[in-house]
Amino acid sequence: MAHLSGILLLLFLTAVASKSISYDDPVFGQPEQIHISYGLDPSLMVVTWITMNPVNDSIVEYGENGVLNQRATGNVSIFQDSGTEKRREYVHRVVLRNLKPGHRYSYHCGSDVYGWSPLFWFAAMRNDSGFVVRAAVYGDMGKDIAYSMPRLQEETQLGHFDLILHVGDMAYDMNSDNARFGDEYMNAIESIAGYIPYMTCPGNHENAYNFSQYTAKFSMPSSMNTFGGDANHFYSFNVGSAHIIGFSTEFYYFTEYGFDQIINQYQWLEQDLRKANQPANRARYPWIITMGHKPMYCSNSDDNDCLTTEGYSYVRNGLPFVEAYGLEKLFAQYGVDLEFWAHEHSYERLWPVYNSTVHNGTKGAYIDPDAPVHIVTGSAGCPERHDPFGIPRSWTAYRNNDYGYSRMNIYNASHLYLEQVSDDKGGKVVDSMWLIKSKHGPYSYFE
Ligand SMILES: [Fe+2]
Protein backbone atom coordinates (compact mmCIF):
# COMPACT_ATOMS: atom_id res chain seq x y z
CA MET A 1 0.00 0.00 0.00
CA ALA A 2 2.81 2.35 0.89
CA HIS A 3 4.41 1.45 -2.43
CA LEU A 4 1.19 2.32 -4.32
CA SER A 5 0.75 5.67 -2.59
CA GLY A 6 4.37 6.47 -3.46
CA ILE A 7 3.67 5.81 -7.14
CA LEU A 8 0.52 7.96 -6.99
CA LEU A 9 2.48 10.80 -5.38
CA LEU A 10 5.15 10.53 -8.08
CA LEU A 11 2.47 10.61 -10.82
CA PHE A 12 0.89 13.67 -9.20
CA LEU A 13 4.20 15.52 -8.96
CA THR A 14 5.01 14.63 -12.59
CA ALA A 15 1.62 15.96 -13.69
CA VAL A 16 2.18 19.21 -11.79
CA ALA A 17 5.66 19.59 -13.22
CA SER A 18 4.49 18.99 -16.80
CA LYS A 19 1.83 21.69 -16.33
CA SER A 20 4.48 24.33 -15.87
CA ILE A 21 2.81 27.65 -15.44
CA SER A 22 3.66 30.16 -18.13
CA TYR A 23 2.99 33.86 -18.46
CA ASP A 24 0.59 33.01 -21.28
CA ASP A 25 -1.61 30.99 -18.96
CA PRO A 26 -4.99 32.72 -18.70
CA VAL A 27 -4.71 32.43 -14.93
CA PHE A 28 -2.44 35.50 -15.14
CA GLY A 29 -4.91 38.29 -15.65
CA GLN A 30 -3.85 40.62 -12.94
CA PRO A 31 -3.95 44.34 -13.83
CA GLU A 32 -0.80 46.28 -14.65
CA GLN A 33 0.02 49.72 -16.16
CA ILE A 34 -2.76 51.32 -14.10
CA HIS A 35 -3.40 55.00 -14.71
CA ILE A 36 -6.20 57.52 -14.39
CA SER A 37 -7.28 60.52 -16.45
CA TYR A 38 -9.83 63.30 -16.28
CA GLY A 39 -13.16 63.20 -18.06
CA LEU A 40 -14.92 66.27 -19.35
CA ASP A 41 -16.45 67.26 -16.03
CA PRO A 42 -15.70 66.79 -12.33
CA SER A 43 -18.11 63.91 -11.90
CA LEU A 44 -15.92 61.66 -14.07
CA MET A 45 -12.61 59.86 -13.73
CA VAL A 46 -11.32 57.20 -16.12
CA VAL A 47 -9.31 54.22 -14.91
CA THR A 48 -7.28 52.40 -17.57
CA TRP A 49 -5.15 49.28 -17.17
CA ILE A 50 -3.67 46.38 -19.10
CA THR A 51 -3.85 42.63 -18.77
CA MET A 52 -1.49 40.43 -20.73
CA ASN A 53 -4.11 37.76 -21.20
CA PRO A 54 -7.76 37.83 -22.23
CA VAL A 55 -9.87 38.99 -19.32
CA ASN A 56 -13.42 39.91 -20.19
CA ASP A 57 -14.28 41.67 -16.97
CA SER A 58 -13.24 45.29 -16.44
CA ILE A 59 -14.30 46.31 -12.96
CA VAL A 60 -13.35 49.13 -10.60
CA GLU A 61 -14.36 48.91 -6.95
CA TYR A 62 -14.14 52.29 -5.26
CA GLY A 63 -15.49 54.49 -2.54
CA GLU A 64 -14.79 57.19 0.03
CA ASN A 65 -13.11 56.76 3.41
CA GLY A 66 -11.22 53.70 2.21
CA VAL A 67 -14.43 51.67 1.78
CA LEU A 68 -14.81 50.10 -1.67
CA ASN A 69 -18.60 50.08 -1.60
CA GLN A 70 -19.19 51.14 -5.21
CA ARG A 71 -18.58 49.17 -8.34
CA ALA A 72 -18.31 50.28 -11.97
CA THR A 73 -17.81 48.19 -15.06
CA GLY A 74 -16.29 49.13 -18.40
CA ASN A 75 -14.99 47.50 -21.52
CA VAL A 76 -11.91 45.79 -22.87
CA SER A 77 -10.25 46.32 -26.23
CA ILE A 78 -7.29 44.58 -27.82
CA PHE A 79 -4.02 46.34 -28.53
CA GLN A 80 -2.19 44.38 -31.20
CA ASP A 81 1.40 45.51 -31.61
CA SER A 82 2.73 45.57 -35.16
CA GLY A 83 6.23 44.35 -34.25
CA THR A 84 7.54 40.97 -35.34
CA GLU A 85 5.97 39.12 -32.41
CA LYS A 86 2.54 40.67 -32.97
CA ARG A 87 2.01 40.78 -29.22
CA ARG A 88 -1.48 41.31 -27.92
CA GLU A 89 -2.45 43.17 -24.80
CA TYR A 90 -5.88 43.81 -23.34
CA VAL A 91 -6.78 47.40 -22.53
CA HIS A 92 -9.42 47.84 -19.84
CA ARG A 93 -11.21 51.16 -19.51
CA VAL A 94 -13.76 52.05 -16.83
CA VAL A 95 -15.42 55.45 -16.45
CA LEU A 96 -16.31 56.33 -12.86
CA ARG A 97 -19.37 58.59 -12.76
CA ASN A 98 -21.21 60.74 -10.25
CA LEU A 99 -18.06 61.53 -8.31
CA LYS A 100 -18.23 64.40 -5.83
CA PRO A 101 -15.84 67.19 -6.88
CA GLY A 102 -12.71 67.29 -4.75
CA HIS A 103 -13.63 64.22 -2.70
CA ARG A 104 -11.01 61.56 -2.16
CA TYR A 105 -11.72 58.04 -3.38
CA SER A 106 -9.88 54.77 -2.95
CA TYR A 107 -10.05 52.18 -5.71
CA HIS A 108 -8.70 49.01 -7.11
CA CYS A 109 -9.32 47.51 -10.52
CA GLY A 110 -9.47 44.04 -11.99
CA SER A 111 -11.97 41.22 -11.98
CA ASP A 112 -13.55 38.74 -9.58
CA VAL A 113 -12.01 35.79 -11.44
CA TYR A 114 -8.49 36.95 -12.19
CA GLY A 115 -7.71 39.22 -9.30
CA TRP A 116 -7.26 42.82 -8.37
CA SER A 117 -4.68 45.55 -8.48
CA PRO A 118 -3.12 47.11 -5.40
CA LEU A 119 -5.14 49.85 -3.74
CA PHE A 120 -4.86 53.37 -5.17
CA TRP A 121 -6.58 56.65 -4.41
CA PHE A 122 -7.38 59.92 -6.15
CA ALA A 123 -9.17 63.22 -5.63
CA ALA A 124 -12.07 63.90 -7.99
CA MET A 125 -11.62 66.92 -10.24
CA ARG A 126 -12.65 70.42 -9.23
CA ASN A 127 -13.33 73.06 -11.84
CA ASP A 128 -14.71 75.77 -9.62
CA SER A 129 -12.86 79.08 -9.76
CA GLY A 130 -11.76 78.80 -6.13
CA PHE A 131 -9.68 75.72 -6.80
CA VAL A 132 -5.90 76.22 -6.95
CA VAL A 133 -4.62 73.88 -9.65
CA ARG A 134 -1.19 72.36 -9.01
CA ALA A 135 0.34 70.55 -11.96
CA ALA A 136 3.65 68.99 -12.87
CA VAL A 137 4.54 69.65 -16.51
CA TYR A 138 7.29 67.94 -18.50
CA GLY A 139 8.11 66.09 -21.67
CA ASP A 140 10.68 63.65 -22.91
CA MET A 141 10.82 61.18 -20.06
CA GLY A 142 11.95 57.68 -21.01
CA LYS A 143 11.75 54.38 -19.21
CA ASP A 144 15.53 54.57 -18.68
CA ILE A 145 17.43 57.55 -17.27
CA ALA A 146 14.14 59.03 -16.10
CA TYR A 147 15.84 61.52 -13.82
CA SER A 148 12.67 63.23 -12.70
CA MET A 149 10.73 60.06 -11.91
CA PRO A 150 11.76 59.59 -8.24
CA ARG A 151 11.03 63.19 -7.33
CA LEU A 152 7.76 63.21 -9.26
CA GLN A 153 6.75 60.01 -7.52
CA GLU A 154 7.57 61.43 -4.10
CA GLU A 155 5.78 64.70 -4.79
CA THR A 156 2.74 62.82 -6.05
CA GLN A 157 2.59 60.60 -2.98
CA LEU A 158 2.95 63.66 -0.74
CA GLY A 159 -0.05 65.23 -2.44
CA HIS A 160 1.78 68.11 -4.11
CA PHE A 161 0.04 67.78 -7.49
CA ASP A 162 -3.49 67.54 -8.80
CA LEU A 163 -2.50 66.39 -12.26
CA ILE A 164 0.34 65.74 -14.68
CA LEU A 165 0.78 67.26 -18.13
CA HIS A 166 3.19 65.05 -20.09
CA VAL A 167 4.08 67.03 -23.20
CA GLY A 168 4.96 64.08 -25.44
CA ASP A 169 7.85 61.62 -25.89
CA MET A 170 7.77 58.74 -23.48
CA ALA A 171 9.50 55.37 -23.00
CA TYR A 172 11.99 55.86 -25.90
CA ASP A 173 10.22 54.19 -27.58
CA MET A 174 6.94 52.58 -26.68
CA ASN A 175 7.18 50.17 -29.63
CA SER A 176 10.76 49.00 -28.90
CA ASP A 177 11.32 45.31 -28.13
CA ASN A 178 7.92 44.42 -29.50
CA ALA A 179 6.15 47.02 -27.35
CA ARG A 180 7.78 45.89 -24.10
CA PHE A 181 9.37 49.32 -23.63
CA GLY A 182 5.87 50.75 -23.56
CA ASP A 183 4.84 48.17 -20.96
CA GLU A 184 7.85 49.00 -18.80
CA TYR A 185 7.22 52.71 -19.06
CA MET A 186 3.54 52.45 -18.22
CA ASN A 187 4.37 50.28 -15.23
CA ALA A 188 7.06 52.73 -14.12
CA ILE A 189 4.68 55.70 -14.10
CA GLU A 190 1.97 53.76 -12.27
CA SER A 191 3.27 55.16 -8.97
CA ILE A 192 2.32 58.60 -10.31
CA ALA A 193 -0.45 57.95 -12.80
CA GLY A 194 -2.40 55.58 -10.55
CA TYR A 195 -3.03 58.50 -8.17
CA ILE A 196 -3.33 61.67 -10.24
CA PRO A 197 -4.62 62.15 -13.78
CA TYR A 198 -1.87 61.69 -16.33
CA MET A 199 -2.85 63.95 -19.22
CA THR A 200 -0.76 63.57 -22.36
CA CYS A 201 -0.09 64.66 -25.89
CA PRO A 202 1.89 62.64 -28.44
CA GLY A 203 5.54 63.18 -29.35
CA ASN A 204 7.62 61.90 -32.23
CA HIS A 205 8.77 58.94 -30.14
CA GLU A 206 5.20 57.62 -30.05
CA ASN A 207 4.86 57.61 -33.84
CA ALA A 208 5.41 53.90 -34.57
CA TYR A 209 2.60 52.16 -36.43
CA ASN A 210 0.58 55.36 -36.54
CA PHE A 211 0.90 56.02 -32.81
CA SER A 212 -0.91 52.74 -32.14
CA GLN A 213 0.30 51.99 -28.62
CA TYR A 214 -0.11 55.62 -27.52
CA THR A 215 -3.68 55.83 -28.81
CA ALA A 216 -4.53 52.39 -27.38
CA LYS A 217 -3.28 52.90 -23.84
CA PHE A 218 -4.15 56.45 -22.85
CA SER A 219 -7.70 57.68 -22.31
CA MET A 220 -7.98 61.38 -23.04
CA PRO A 221 -11.55 62.71 -23.24
CA SER A 222 -13.23 63.46 -26.55
CA SER A 223 -15.90 66.08 -26.98
CA MET A 224 -18.27 63.13 -27.46
CA ASN A 225 -17.35 62.01 -23.94
CA THR A 226 -15.65 58.87 -25.18
CA PHE A 227 -12.08 58.12 -24.19
CA GLY A 228 -8.83 57.11 -25.85
CA GLY A 229 -8.14 56.43 -29.52
CA ASP A 230 -8.20 59.56 -31.67
CA ALA A 231 -9.02 61.71 -28.65
CA ASN A 232 -5.47 61.10 -27.42
CA HIS A 233 -4.22 63.30 -30.28
CA PHE A 234 -6.31 66.38 -29.51
CA TYR A 235 -8.76 67.15 -26.71
CA SER A 236 -9.49 69.71 -24.02
CA PHE A 237 -10.79 69.86 -20.47
CA ASN A 238 -11.49 72.45 -17.77
CA VAL A 239 -9.90 72.34 -14.34
CA GLY A 240 -9.93 75.11 -11.72
CA SER A 241 -10.05 78.33 -13.71
CA ALA A 242 -8.24 76.90 -16.74
CA HIS A 243 -9.18 75.48 -20.11
CA ILE A 244 -6.37 73.11 -21.09
CA ILE A 245 -5.84 71.84 -24.64
CA GLY A 246 -3.62 68.93 -25.64
CA PHE A 247 -2.85 68.55 -29.35
CA SER A 248 -0.50 66.82 -31.77
CA THR A 249 2.38 68.62 -33.41
CA GLU A 250 3.32 65.30 -34.97
CA PHE A 251 0.55 65.43 -37.56
CA TYR A 252 2.76 68.05 -39.26
CA TYR A 253 5.75 65.73 -39.38
CA PHE A 254 4.34 62.23 -39.97
CA THR A 255 2.24 63.15 -42.96
CA GLU A 256 2.43 59.59 -44.28
CA TYR A 257 -0.48 58.93 -41.93
CA GLY A 258 -2.57 61.50 -43.77
CA PHE A 259 -2.70 65.27 -44.31
CA ASP A 260 -6.35 65.22 -43.33
CA GLN A 261 -5.28 64.84 -39.70
CA ILE A 262 -3.71 68.32 -39.79
CA ILE A 263 -6.90 69.78 -41.22
CA ASN A 264 -9.21 67.91 -38.83
CA GLN A 265 -7.18 68.98 -35.83
CA TYR A 266 -6.96 72.60 -36.99
CA GLN A 267 -10.72 72.76 -37.45
CA TRP A 268 -11.27 71.18 -34.06
CA LEU A 269 -8.82 73.62 -32.41
CA GLU A 270 -10.58 76.59 -33.98
CA GLN A 271 -13.96 75.31 -32.86
CA ASP A 272 -12.72 74.56 -29.36
CA LEU A 273 -11.03 77.97 -29.00
CA ARG A 274 -14.11 79.78 -30.31
CA LYS A 275 -16.27 78.00 -27.76
CA ALA A 276 -13.77 78.64 -24.96
CA ASN A 277 -13.92 82.35 -25.86
CA GLN A 278 -17.66 82.66 -25.59
CA PRO A 279 -18.05 85.29 -22.87
CA ALA A 280 -19.56 83.01 -20.25
CA ASN A 281 -16.95 80.32 -20.85
CA ARG A 282 -13.96 82.67 -20.84
CA ALA A 283 -15.25 84.30 -17.65
CA ARG A 284 -15.52 80.93 -15.93
CA TYR A 285 -12.27 79.49 -17.35
CA PRO A 286 -10.17 82.56 -18.15
CA TRP A 287 -6.83 80.78 -18.60
CA ILE A 288 -6.34 79.01 -21.91
CA ILE A 289 -3.29 76.79 -21.83
CA THR A 290 -2.03 74.56 -24.64
CA MET A 291 0.44 71.70 -24.72
CA GLY A 292 2.02 70.31 -27.87
CA HIS A 293 5.31 68.51 -28.31
CA LYS A 294 7.48 70.31 -30.90
CA PRO A 295 8.02 73.99 -30.00
CA MET A 296 7.25 76.99 -32.17
CA TYR A 297 10.36 78.70 -30.76
CA CYS A 298 13.56 77.55 -29.10
CA SER A 299 17.22 78.52 -29.01
CA ASN A 300 18.75 75.05 -29.09
CA SER A 301 21.49 74.68 -31.64
CA ASP A 302 20.65 71.21 -32.88
CA ASP A 303 17.10 71.41 -34.09
CA ASN A 304 15.93 73.32 -37.12
CA ASP A 305 12.31 72.59 -36.30
CA CYS A 306 12.03 75.57 -34.02
CA LEU A 307 14.89 77.84 -35.16
CA THR A 308 12.53 80.08 -36.99
CA THR A 309 15.02 82.77 -37.89
CA GLU A 310 16.77 80.49 -40.35
CA GLY A 311 14.25 77.73 -40.67
CA TYR A 312 10.58 77.22 -40.89
CA SER A 313 8.32 75.89 -38.17
CA TYR A 314 5.52 73.74 -39.51
CA VAL A 315 3.64 74.08 -36.27
CA ARG A 316 4.05 77.84 -36.13
CA ASN A 317 3.81 78.78 -39.81
CA GLY A 318 1.89 75.88 -41.28
CA LEU A 319 2.56 73.53 -44.15
CA PRO A 320 5.46 74.53 -46.42
CA PHE A 321 4.75 76.66 -49.50
CA VAL A 322 1.03 77.07 -48.79
CA GLU A 323 1.59 78.28 -45.20
CA ALA A 324 -1.75 76.79 -44.19
CA TYR A 325 -2.85 75.44 -40.82
CA GLY A 326 -0.11 77.14 -38.81
CA LEU A 327 -1.07 77.54 -35.18
CA GLU A 328 0.67 80.70 -33.95
CA LYS A 329 -1.89 83.08 -35.40
CA LEU A 330 -4.82 80.90 -34.41
CA PHE A 331 -3.65 80.70 -30.80
CA ALA A 332 -3.00 84.45 -30.57
CA GLN A 333 -6.32 85.33 -32.21
CA TYR A 334 -8.12 83.46 -29.50
CA GLY A 335 -5.94 84.78 -26.70
CA VAL A 336 -4.13 81.63 -25.60
CA ASP A 337 -2.27 82.67 -22.43
CA LEU A 338 0.37 80.00 -22.02
CA GLU A 339 1.86 77.38 -24.36
CA PHE A 340 3.84 74.37 -23.11
CA TRP A 341 6.24 72.58 -25.42
CA ALA A 342 8.94 69.92 -25.04
CA HIS A 343 11.05 67.93 -27.57
CA GLU A 344 14.16 69.97 -26.77
CA HIS A 345 15.83 68.22 -23.85
CA SER A 346 16.21 71.39 -21.87
CA TYR A 347 14.17 74.15 -20.25
CA GLU A 348 13.58 77.51 -21.84
CA ARG A 349 11.30 80.34 -20.68
CA LEU A 350 10.48 82.82 -23.40
CA TRP A 351 9.42 86.43 -23.29
CA PRO A 352 5.88 86.85 -24.55
CA VAL A 353 6.29 86.42 -28.30
CA TYR A 354 4.25 86.64 -31.48
CA ASN A 355 5.59 86.50 -35.04
CA SER A 356 9.17 86.43 -33.68
CA THR A 357 8.60 89.76 -31.94
CA VAL A 358 8.64 90.16 -28.16
CA HIS A 359 5.50 91.79 -26.71
CA ASN A 360 6.22 92.32 -23.03
CA GLY A 361 3.65 93.99 -20.80
CA THR A 362 4.22 97.65 -19.94
CA LYS A 363 4.23 97.13 -16.15
CA GLY A 364 6.39 94.03 -16.31
CA ALA A 365 7.19 91.46 -18.96
CA TYR A 366 4.59 89.01 -17.73
CA ILE A 367 2.04 91.51 -16.44
CA ASP A 368 -0.66 91.75 -19.10
CA PRO A 369 1.72 90.74 -21.90
CA ASP A 370 0.52 91.26 -25.44
CA ALA A 371 1.40 87.77 -26.68
CA PRO A 372 1.30 84.18 -25.44
CA VAL A 373 4.03 82.96 -23.07
CA HIS A 374 5.92 79.91 -24.28
CA ILE A 375 7.68 77.42 -21.99
CA VAL A 376 9.81 74.57 -23.40
CA THR A 377 10.12 71.86 -20.75
CA GLY A 378 11.55 68.64 -22.16
CA SER A 379 14.21 67.64 -19.68
CA ALA A 380 12.59 64.99 -17.46
CA GLY A 381 15.15 62.39 -18.56
CA CYS A 382 15.74 60.16 -21.56
CA PRO A 383 18.62 58.20 -23.09
CA GLU A 384 19.26 60.90 -25.71
CA ARG A 385 20.69 63.25 -23.08
CA HIS A 386 20.56 67.05 -23.31
CA ASP A 387 20.14 69.27 -26.32
CA PRO A 388 22.76 72.04 -26.42
CA PHE A 389 21.82 75.70 -26.64
CA GLY A 390 22.87 77.99 -29.46
CA ILE A 391 23.01 81.76 -29.32
CA PRO A 392 20.21 83.28 -27.24
CA ARG A 393 17.38 84.69 -29.29
CA SER A 394 15.46 87.90 -28.74
CA TRP A 395 12.70 85.89 -27.13
CA THR A 396 15.01 83.96 -24.78
CA ALA A 397 14.31 84.97 -21.17
CA TYR A 398 15.95 82.10 -19.28
CA ARG A 399 17.29 78.68 -20.16
CA ASN A 400 18.71 75.78 -18.25
CA ASN A 401 20.14 72.45 -19.28
CA ASP A 402 19.62 70.48 -16.07
CA TYR A 403 17.33 67.49 -15.90
CA GLY A 404 14.08 68.54 -14.31
CA TYR A 405 10.42 69.39 -14.62
CA SER A 406 8.08 72.35 -14.26
CA ARG A 407 5.52 73.09 -11.59
CA MET A 408 2.49 75.22 -12.39
CA ASN A 409 0.07 76.67 -9.86
CA ILE A 410 -3.04 78.40 -11.18
CA TYR A 411 -4.23 80.45 -8.24
CA ASN A 412 -7.18 82.34 -9.65
CA ALA A 413 -8.36 84.23 -12.74
CA SER A 414 -5.43 86.64 -12.64
CA HIS A 415 -2.42 84.88 -11.11
CA LEU A 416 -0.49 81.87 -12.42
CA TYR A 417 2.88 80.78 -11.02
CA LEU A 418 5.53 78.67 -12.76
CA GLU A 419 8.82 77.27 -11.53
CA GLN A 420 11.46 74.90 -12.81
CA VAL A 421 12.84 72.11 -10.62
CA SER A 422 16.39 70.89 -11.24
CA ASP A 423 17.02 67.22 -10.55
CA ASP A 424 20.73 67.82 -11.11
CA LYS A 425 20.67 70.25 -8.18
CA GLY A 426 18.73 68.03 -5.79
CA GLY A 427 15.31 69.49 -6.44
CA LYS A 428 16.36 73.13 -6.28
CA VAL A 429 14.09 75.64 -7.99
CA VAL A 430 16.24 77.24 -10.70
CA ASP A 431 13.66 79.51 -12.32
CA SER A 432 10.29 80.98 -11.44
CA MET A 433 7.83 83.50 -12.79
CA TRP A 434 4.38 84.94 -12.20
CA LEU A 435 2.06 85.45 -15.14
CA ILE A 436 -0.43 88.11 -14.15
CA LYS A 437 -3.37 89.07 -16.31
CA SER A 438 -6.12 91.54 -15.57
CA LYS A 439 -7.94 90.42 -18.70
CA HIS A 440 -7.85 87.43 -21.01
CA GLY A 441 -8.66 87.39 -24.69
CA PRO A 442 -7.29 88.18 -28.15
CA TYR A 443 -4.10 90.22 -28.26
CA SER A 444 -4.18 93.89 -29.33
CA TYR A 445 -3.26 93.25 -32.97
CA PHE A 446 -6.43 91.17 -33.38
CA GLU A 447 -8.89 93.44 -31.60
FE1 LIG B 1 10.56 64.72 -29.42
From TrEMBL:
GO terms for molecular function: acid phosphatase activity; metal ion binding. It comes from the Eukaryota. Residues 371-432 form the Purple acid phosphatase C-terminal domain. It catalyses: a phosphate monoester + H2O = an alcohol + phosphate. InterPro entries: Calcineurin-like_PHP, Metallo-depent_PP-like, MPP_PAP, PAPs_C, PAPs_N, Purple_acid_Pase-like_N. Its EC number is 3.1.3.2. Residues 135-347 form the Calcineurin-like phosphoesterase domain. Residues 31-122 form the Purple acid phosphatase N-terminal domain. Residues 1-18 form the signal peptide. Keywords: Glycoprotein, Hydrolase, Signal. Belongs to the metallophosphoesterase superfamily. Purple acid phosphatase family. This is Purple acid phosphatase. It comes from Adineta ricciae (Rotifer).
